[in-house]
Structures are given as structure tokens and as C-alpha cells.
């Protein structure tokens, strides 16, 4: 999770929401990593998880990422949960809950449907306070910046 947090810093440096993700194999080797790129790539699917999965799948030359663990600093949304399901990731570990769009327990639980063709082991709340504070600080700073810009443009 610490590595995912460092990847979130890369997103923040680009002006993106600071979320990072890293996919590792059963021996802990990094297969793929990513951070939010939706804003600069004008791509609503460029969430940290999707970027990491794309990177790993290309490296593995396989869309199935069996026997892997995905670490992500924020609870995945529905889109990312779907990608996790389809890539056959074995385990998901996330940091902060996402009470607005979280699909792994906060808003609802995507993987609770017993009819899914794949199950994912889930561990939430790992370094949750640190992950959550990184996001909260980003949005606090962004609100201050937007307010200052509004005052500057409307004296």
C-alpha cells in the first residue's frame, strides 16, 4: 500500500485526484502500476486501477491476471470493480473507503452477488487514515485554489 500511496503522489503532481494502484504477483513482484490520469488524458476510464491493469495485462500479454493482488489507495468504483472481476484478480486490498462511489462496501458491494463467475478476496481499510487524508488534503487545497481564482477573476 505504501507503493500505491507513492503512485498517488504522481497523480497529484499532475493535478489529478491522488489515487494510486499497484498489481503484484503471488511473490510480490510488481506486474503493473497506475495512478489517476482521467483529466490529462481526457479519459473517464483512466482510473488508477484500470491503468495498472492495462499495464500488467500488456506486460503479461494476457487479459487474465490470475494469482495477483491489487493494492489501491481508494475503494474502487463500479467500473473498476468490473475490471477487477473480468481480469480475474485474486485479491483486492484498498485503503480509504469512498462513500460517494465506492462499490466494494461503502455504497454497495459489487462482489456480493453470488451469481458472479469469479470471487475476489477483499481487504479494506489498509492505511485508510493516511490514504483518506491524502485525498482530503487534495480537495481542501483545490477548494482554496478555486476560491482564490474566483476572487482574482471577479474583483
From TrEMBL:
Keyword Cell division (UniProt): no
Cofactor: Zn(2+)
Pfam families: dCMP_cyt_deam_1 (PF00383)
EC number: 3.5.4.33
UniProt keyword annotations, A-Z: Hydrolase, Metal-binding, tRNA processing, Zinc
Gene3D superfamilies: Cytidine Deaminase, domain 2
Active-site residue list: 49 (proton donor)
Description of how the protein assembles with itself and partners: Homodimer.
Protein name: tRNA-specific adenosine deaminase
Organism whose genome encodes this protein: Rodentibacter heidelbergensis
